[in-house]
Amino acid sequence: MFLTDQWKQVLNKMENEVTAVTFDLWINTLVPVSFNNDELLIMAPSVTAKNQVNQPGIFEKLTRSVRSVFTPYTFVRITEKEEYEQINRKQNDELEKIANKANIVSKFNKKYTFENFVVGKSNQVVCAAMQSVAEHPSEKFNPLFIYGGVGLGKTHLMHAVGNYLNAHNPELKVLYVTCEKFTNDYVESIRNGKDKSNSEFREKYRNVDVLMIDDIQFISNKMGIQEEFFHTFNDLYQNNKQIIIASDRSPKEMSALEERLRSRFSSGLIQDIQEPDYETKVAIIRKKCSQEGYLVDDDVIDFIAQITSTNIREMEGILSKVVFYSSLLNKTHVSLDDAREALKDYGETQHTDLDAEKIINTICEFFKVSREDLIGKKKNKEIVEPRQMCIYLMNDMLNIPLTAIGSLLGGRDHTTVMHARDKISNQIKINPHTKTLVNDLKSRLLKY
Ligand code: ADP
Ligand code: MG
What we know:
By secondary structure, this protein is α/β, with parallel strands linked by helices. About 60% of the residues lie in helices and about 10% in strands. The model has no long low-confidence stretch (mean pLDDT about 90). α1 packs across α4 (about 55-70) and α12 packs across α14. It folds into 4 domains: about 1-85, GMP Synthetase, Chain A, domain 3; about 125-270, 3-Layer(aba) Sandwich (Rossmann fold), CATH 3.40.50; about 280-350, Helicase, Ruva Protein, domain 3; about 355-445, Chromosomal Replication Initiator Protein Dnaa, Chain: A (Orthogonal Bundle), CATH 1.10.1750.10. Magnesium ion binds near residues 154, 155 and 214. Adenosine-5'-diphosphate binds near residues 117, 150, 151, 153 and 156.
């Protein structure tokens, strides 16, 4: 309205400036498009019309008329239909790009869900906290900071939150990045130097409803990264957006962390995830087997849980190795023998330090009996049971012949040793308590 009114005044003036033919043929066909930053953009219906109007005589008069109506320093630019449309298209592309960027949402690993996450003593609190944030983002714990050792499920849980939100709250923008990605994005934005890319960076990180940053322990204090993170954090926090952070150590243990970030983190919930106990390890392997459709005997699952550390990623690797080996043999089922064979090298490198001495020491420590008593003649239950266990483990784990075990344990004869070994192996079959006890001892012995 404003523009066309002013344009009418320009036309009135021009009518007196040029001949009637020029006016009707060229001037009257012009259409004002925009007036921005002192530039009046005018569209001519054709290239010929544009060229005509651009002729010095006419153009000067037009500019003078425009300036008397608009501002004294208005710059007049004539465009033509095609050219204008092209510019427009380019601008739209730019706009679309920005819109797309603003719409950045992460794709999440479909396998990393809450359903696929095995909950045990070691991770139940962390899992519950993540679940409640997924169900009520920005309402419960904000920020939520989770930390724990490698391979304990932090990344899995973050993806689980992402998958849950995408399914239940698809309108929310959920962004998951590693600290490395965040850093690279930022470094790139300052390398490009211009305000534009910096605003793209902000557009991306400050336009989300849920921001998850994984492996924050890699945050450096170079290049103002912590500074930028601090601002991103504040901005989101003040706008009541959910922030979830994962780290392999607690904020207290992150020496390079600026104090103000540390204190921001502690304004929410800081929760650790611990190493899984034996039962949880077994449950996780079992879950992986059913998820992947692996047919694996129970004693193989026990075996894997025993020989692996608490790193669940490593445990998964071992499981795949065993399954792969058995598939090479065209077996439908993974048996303990095959598993042992598949992991021969793994076992050797892991347990070269396992010997009779270590078994004796571990038994004494675990049952709180003295070495003297273990090897000696006492027959009370408190001593006999550890002694039998010791014999069983020496034979089962190290394949030490029964006679040799006898002499290691104070010169006992071979039938006594055999009796002890058989007693434990029978009990393992009928008594779940004994089985757990043996597994626990084995995992202690094989851990390092
Ligand atoms: P982190 O990020 O803590 O290093 P990840 O989340 O990458 O560990 O977990 C390593 C692997 O272990 C993943 O494949 C994950 O699915 C699996 N995992 C970890 N904890 C569990 C669990 N409680 N239940 C099932 N799988 C788990
Ligand atoms: Mg991780």
